[in-house]
Write a structure and sequence with these properties.
2 copies of one chain form a homodimer. In chain A, 74% of the residues lie in helices and 0% in strands. Chain A binds a DNA duplex through loops.
Chain lengths: 192, 192
DNA sequence: TTATTTTAACTAATGTAATTAGTAAAGTCA
DNA sequence: TGACTTTACTAATTACATTAGTTAAAATAA
């Protein structure tokens, strides 16, 4: 009977996934929870703040899943595994992902911090590829860019043909990693 | 004194660029035009429809600029030139670009058609690279993904350091194209 | 257990914005 | 000129988000 902040966020996220971000309203959330709209203000500051919480929760969950996916792997393998996990989350939670994109434009420092955690994971994995560390930021920008752009543009197909899109993403990452290797691999021959 | 549909869209697009998509309201647009809010309904069907028109206009303008940028060029050069043009438009019109992203989720058939025109341009350019035509769709998905993702994620830096980001994008495209060449180049030796 | 404090619900009221209906003036065309 | 269309207007409706003030239940401390 008693509702927690976490309940509110979960309910809102479910509405986003089912009906899209534009159908998330305090009214709809309150109805789902069987309380009156103003009661939500005991848990949240505003609709905007709620949307940010949805995004932050989603980003954190993604980060956790991606870390799990990377365990026991290094190099290209690890990066591709993380990429597939990223895509899978989008397929499972399109509404949350839409909210995350919204937060790209309406984010706060907190948003930036969570994104940094994601960058930090990818950085560790990229370094395990033995790329020249000098270029690591360049490489990171490219990897995050591909991942975000590719998955976003393929999402519409991902619902009907998830396996095809997963395979295609893996192949696309192979291609990009090939380019990165060609350009940024450390040449250790100097020490022979 | 008399207002046209085009005026309405332009005004709304300007507000988006100056104050962000979330500040585009019929009220704000009407005030900018010095008319009453309901009068806007003589030109548009709804707020949503207006936002879609902003996006469509922007996409068409981008397509035109990219075609211009590709004239007289082929191969990697042409693709990089188009990419820089894409980035430049985003820097100039962040609000319109935000609306275009919104239209990714709330688009219609029309939205798809305009996007197809963009794909068609890139396809022509990609074919001028002498990649194996069999893989052209794969290549296209990768190129559009990189372009969209990379520019979106770098946009925040692009306002303060546009030249750096432009150079970085060009370099990122080089890397991706290197990977694509390695994997998909036609080997014409067969005919020797 | 009892008293105190906090939490989280409620109703009532306000303000903003989108949308619809109905109307009048100004421009277009026969 | 007269019929018709376009585009503006005012008035009214609706849907939300948000604030204020109140109350009852739950949590905590004595």
């Amino acid at each position: 009977m008693r509702i927690t902040k976490s309940d509110v966020i979960q309910t809102a996220a479910d509405i986003a996934d089912k009906n899209g971000l534009s159908n998330v309203s305090l009214k709809a959330v309150a109805e789902s929870l069987n309380i009156r709209t103003p009661s939500l203000y005991n848990h949240i500051d505003s609709l905007e703040a709620l949307l940010r919480e949805i995004a932050h929760n989603g980003m954190k969950t993604m980060n956790e899943r991606m870390m799990q996916a990377a365990i026991g792997k290094i190099g290209d393998d690890a990066i591709k595994s993380v990429g597939i996990t990223y895509l899978n989350y989008m397929i499972e939670h399109p509404g949350i992902y839409e909210t995350i994109q919204w937060a790209t434009w309406h984010g706060t420092e907190e948003t930036g911090k969570i994104f940094d955690n994601y960058l930090s994971l990818l950085k560790t994995l990229a370094l395990s590829c033995n790329f020249n560390p000098v270029n690591i930021d360049e490489i990171l920008n490219l990897l995050t860019g591909v991942l975000h752009g590719y998955t976003t543009l393929q999402l519409r197909y991902a619902f009907t043909k998830p396996d095809e899109v997963r395979t295609a993403l893996s192949s696309a990452l192979d291609t990009v990693l090939a380019g990165i290797h060609q350009k940024y691999d450390q040449h250790e021959k100097e020490h022979l």
